[in-house]
Amino acid sequence: MSILVAGGAGYIGSHMVARLIERGQSVVVVDNLSTGHKGAIDAKAKFYEGDVRDREFLDGVFNAEPIEAVVHFAAFSVVPESMEKPLKYFDNNTGGMITLLEVMRDHNVQRIVFSSTAATYGIPTSIPIKETDPQLPINPYGESKLLMEKIMHWTDVAYGIKFVALRYFNVAGAKPDGSIGEDHGPETHLVPIILQVAQGKRDELSIFGDDYDTPDGTNVRDYVHVMDLADAHILALEYLAKGNDSQAFNLGSSTGFSNKQMLEAAREVTGKPIPAKLAPRRPGDPDSLVAASDKARNVLGWKPQFDDVHDIIKTAWKWHSTHPNGYGDRK
Ligand code: UDP
Questions:
Q1: Confidence of residue 331 (pLDDT cuts 50, 70, 90)
Q2: What is the pLDDT of residue 254?
Q3: Is 196 touching ligand 1 by the criterion CB < 6 Å?
Q4: Is 225 in the pocket of ligand 1 (CB under 6 A)?
Q5: Which of 77, 167, 189, 250, when mutated, tests ligand 1's pocket best, judged by the most ligand atoms within 8 Å of its CB?
Q6: What is the pTM (predicted TM-score) of this model?
Q7: 214: which DSSP letter?
């Protein structure tokens, strides 16, 4: 039997594929390569290029392959873009989920692990954020993912399709051997942008605001290593395979780091000066986002290996410094 990884050519998906393959699992990847990279997919995985919104295409994959469970990463994830193009997000993310679940139902595939996000919480009511806290997204990206969680709830009720929704906080790092990593075009995330400055690909980092209600005035985020995230997905698949009920889990380190602290850590790791300047606030950034992640630790048995942001940045730096042009497939 195989695990279907939708979005397996993307940043997080490709690390999940690599982890599954390392464990001897047979893997089928579906990706339309709109933001992913063919070069990121482990050569031992079977790859079908196509779109999760394309029912006929997905039907063909489920007919051809013995799929036992699905891990779903195929979605757009840039918050500012979602503010400008909300329909693009509801179409691809939410619409894609509907088609995927229809095809799963038709082929009697009863388990799905889903990439959700801390963005489903909106402005936190308390820190650390618990899974039971209110989910009131403040951007279409978070709303599109919250809708996907809700749709899975109702397909569980109606068809018994069990799900685990993993609400990611800030994902960073790369496979420690440096073979795969983060390559977005354009890049919007803090860690890769800082490292692009270290590489000399950008002149300086713009720190978006230093008047937030945090110890040093810059936003505080909770960073989790992409391989630890992949491990949580493996545990979630095992959890569902044992017949457990649908659940949502936060995935974070439970420790917050400010943007200035991340910059300082990157200067230490890379030994580069990394110039930075203060820039205006970016719309939609909550002061702090830190996860309560004891539920994933207690229920799934998740034990993140990277608990120091320096180690996370070190693995990202290995990827960036050995792949200055990422996967080198940018058009
Ligand atoms: N950030 C920044 N400069 C940048 C990119 C990001 O100051 O060039 C800040 C951003 O405002 C936020 C933090 O870094 O406070 C993390 O942003 P990112 O986009 O990496 O992740 P998000 O928290 O939005 O998921």
A1: low
A2: 85
A3: no
A4: no
A5: 189
A6: 0.97
A7: S
Residue nearest to atom 15 of ligand 1 (CA): 219
Locate the ligand 1 atom nearest the alpha carbon of residue 189 and give its number: 20
Q: How many CA atoms lie within 13 A of 105 on its CB side?
A: 15
To test the pocket of ligand 1, the residue of 129, 138, 208 to mutate (highest count of ligand atoms within 8 Å of its CB) is 208
The 3-state DSSP class for residue 306 equals coil
Which residue has its alpha carbon closest to ligand 1 atom 11? 208
In the block, tokens 């503010």 appear at 83
CA–CA distance from 261 to each of 79, 123, 303 (Å)?
23, 22, 24
> Among residues 198, 206, 217, which one has the least CA distance to residue 278?
206
- More reliable by pLDDT, 183 or 285: 183
- Coil, helix or strand for 193? helix
**Domains along the sequence of the chain with CATH:** 2-172+222-251 (3.40.50.720)
**Total number of residues shown for the chain:** 331
Residue 141 has pLDDT above 90, yes or no: yes
In this prediction, residue 112 carries a pLDDT of: 98
pLDDT in tens, 240-294: 999 999 999 999 998 999 999 999 999 999 999 999 999 999 887 889 999 999 9
Closest CA to 194 of 186, 205, 203, 184: 205
Could you say which DSSP state residue 201 is in?
S
Give the ligand 1 atom nearest the CA of 208: 7
Report the separation in Å between the CA atom of 189 and the middle of ligand 1, taken as the mean of its atom positions.
Answer: 6
What pLDDT digit, counting tens, does each position of 61-95 carry?
999 999 999 999 999 999 889 999 999 999 999 99
> Is 11 in the active site?
no
Task: Give the residue, out of 121, 259, 288, with the most ligand 1 atoms within 8 A of its beta carbon, to mutate for a pocket test.
Answer: 259
Rg, C-alpha atoms of the chain: 19
